[in-house]
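Task: complex structure prediction.
Instruction: return structure tokens for all chains below.
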Amino acid sequence: EDKVVQSPLSLVVHEGDTVTLNCSYEVTNFRSLLWYKQEKKAPTFLFMLTSSGIEKKSGRLSSILDKKELFSILNITATQTGDSAVYLCAASGSARQLTFGSGTQLTVLP
Amino acid sequence: DTAVSQTPKYLVTQMGNDKSIKCEQNLGHDTMYWYKQDSKKFLKIMFSYNNKELIINETVPNRFSPKSPDKAHLNLHINSLELGDSAVYFCASSGGGISGIYEQFFGPGTRLTVL
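Output:
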């Protein structure tokens, strides 16, 4: 069975801190790894990673994939209170469906 | 314009009832999905569907059934509702076929409460 594990489960930081969120996966015939941000409602797409070692960047957020070690990290620099959310990692494999991790609850205090 | 919309946003009903949740996407995508998110925020795939293929997560009870009147709609029918069905249900869509490797756009969710 495909599995995605995220850590930590929750994280509390202060504005300006840098955080690293972790995602490890075990999926058959891995195709891609996706990161989503979920605030009060629907998850919103952040990144999709398919190749090892290539960093994807969007503003203060960046992510990288390691297909050898089967993990990905999501970095957020200079955190702001608006970054507070649940960050979800999902992997796609031969089942042709996304398997989600349980998420990391990030709280950024002013 | 809303890309993926769901109705209703909230649904409160009694055990044993049958209910439906509707989903529509105006993105021109060919694949749609239903997810269940429980109280611990764990998001789990229920169905993937395009006009050629339905993939069912084997853990989903057969009381749940997707119905697609056309490519832009995928409704979720639930028969004989149980307390454990209480959750937030998300519809999503993506392009590029049923491979699921493409970005998925999520609807706002339907919070179902079974009393």
